[in-house]
Amino acid sequence: MVPFLYFFYESARGAALGGAVPPDLQATVSHATSLFVIVPTAILGTAAYARAGLVVWRAALPVGLFSLAGGVLGARIALGLPADALKLGFGIFLIATAAQLIRSTRGGEGHPLRLALPITVPTGIVVGVFSAILGVGGGLVAIPLLMHVIGVDIRRVAATSLAIIVMAATAGTLTYMVTGSGVSGLPASSVGYVHVAAGVPLMIGSLFTVRLGAIANQRMKTPTLRRVFAAVLAALGLRLILQAAGALW
Question: Residue 21: helix, strand or coil by DSSP?
Answer without folding.
Answer: coil
